[in-house]
Amino acid sequence: MRGAALVLVLGVAMPPSAFAEPAAVRSSASACAGGRSTTDGSITVCPAAAPVGAVVRVFGRGCHTPGSRTVLAVFLGPRAWVGSAGGGVSIDIPVVQDRFSVAFRIPATYQAGGDTRRLVPVVPGSGYAFAVYPAAECLVDFTVVDAAPPLASTGSPVVLLGWIALGLTMIGVVVLWCERRSLRRSIPRSTAV
Fold first, then answer.
1. CA 193 – CA 181 distance, rounded (Å)
2. pLDDT on residue 152
3. Residue 20 CA: distances (Å) to CA of 77, 86, 125, 148
4. Which of 42, 63, 85, 177 could form a disulfide with 37 if both were Cys (CB 3.0 to 4.6 A apart)?
5. Residue 106 — pLDDT band, cuts 50, 70, 90?
6. Is 193 inside any structural domain?
7. Within this chain, do residues 157 and 140 fall inside the same structural domain, yes or no?
8. Could you read off the pLDDT of 123-147 as tens digits, one per residue?
9. pTM of the model
10. Which of 55, 33, 38, 39 is nearest to 136 (CA)?
């Protein structure tokens, strides 16, 4: 069910094993964005840019009240800020051994700050960020990019499945031909007198 795959709760907690930086991230410095950090912690987002609907990983250490079991983070847009009535999209992230990590789907809208508190569309551009309360001790900038273009007609999954079906059919024909030929050889020929 295609619709079911799109239902991802914002801020899904990851197990402690997810805190290790993946090899793909280590090999490409441009894949992630490290944010403003303090002596008490740091925050990173991977990748540093993604389209609406993409899942990014936000992780870090510290950036919270010592002894707390969660980090309160927020996804901010150009019309939101950290603070009272600041807007954005809140993310409650569990803390394990002073580290936190969460998979976050870039939303189509966020709540604008101020008195209106209305939903504002997330559009391609800079000015987005992930921040941690209290008072944005840790903050990392983020860029929303255009979604990737749809697959070309030759690269669509339907065409690919068609080619796979054709290949399997051809294999089946060859196997049947070989079996039939083998069967003919095993039948003794009668000799007429």
1. 27
2. 52
3. 28, 32, 29, 28
4. 42
5. very high
6. no
7. no
8. 999 989 998 887 667 889 999 999 8
9. 0.60
10. 38
Structural domain boundaries, residue 160: 153-186
The rounded distance, in Å, linking the Cα atoms of 60 and 37 is: 10
In a shared domain, residues 109 and 157: no
Of residues 23 and 164, the one with the higher pLDDT is 164
Q: Which amino acid is at 45?
A: V
Residues 6+ apart with CB under 8 A from 176: none
Residues constituting the chain:
193
Q: What is the DSSP letter of 115?
A: S
Residues 42 and 131 in one domain: yes
> Does 47 sit behind a cis peptide bond, omega within 30 degrees of 0 on the bond before it?
yes
Domain match, 174 and 91 both: no
Count structural domains, the chain: 2
- Which candidate, 14, 10, 143, 129, places its Cα nearest to that of 75? 129
% of the chain beyond a pLDDT of 70:
70
Token representation of residue 114: 């101020």
pLDDT of residue 122 exceeding 70, the answer is: yes
180's enclosing H/E stretch is helix 157-186
